[in-house]
Amino acid sequence: MYKILAINTGSTSTKVAYYEDKECKFHKSVSHPDADIKACKTLIDQLPMRLEIVKGFVEENKIDTKDLSMVMCRGGLVPNLRPGGYKVTPRMEAELRSGNLQPHASNLAALIGLEFARPHDVPCCIYDAPTSADLSDIAEITGMAEILRGSVSHVLNSRAVSHKVAEEVFHQRYEDSRFVVAHLGGGISFSAHMFGKIVDTVADDAGAFGPERSGSLPLLDIVEMCYSGNYSHEEMRRKVRGEGGLKGLLGTSDCRMIEERIRKGDSFAERVYRAEAYQIAKGIGILCCAMKGQLDAIILTGGVSYSKMLTDWIEEYVSFVAPVIVYPGENEMEALAYGGLRILAGEEIAREY
Question: Which of the four pLDDT bands, split at 50, 70 and 90, describes residue 331?
Answer without folding.
Answer: confident
